[in-house]
Design a protein that fits this description.
With 61 residues, the protein is mainly α. The chain has one domain. It is 61% helix and 0% strand. It contains three helices and no strands.
Length: 61
């Protein structure tokens, strides 16, 4: 199981060619809100679901 913080860090490593404009903005904002994935306890269920969806699209087998 991959932690939410690790997923955020992995998503931040993607280029804008890999993400839609909306996804890139979301990942950027989440990175700022969580201090680059270090503090994820305050994320809402909706934001966690979006992170999971984007991460699964790019990293899940």
């Amino acid at each position: 199981m991959v932690s939410v913080g690790t997923k955020i860090k992995q998503l931040q490593g993607l280029t804008e060619k890999d993400l839609t404009a909306w996804e890139a903005n979301f990942v950027h904002d989440i990175g700022l809100a969580t201090q680059q994935g270090e503090h994820t306890a305050t994320l809402t269920d909706k934001r966690l679901a979006v992170i999971e969806r984007i991460w699964s699209k790019h990293f899940a087998g």
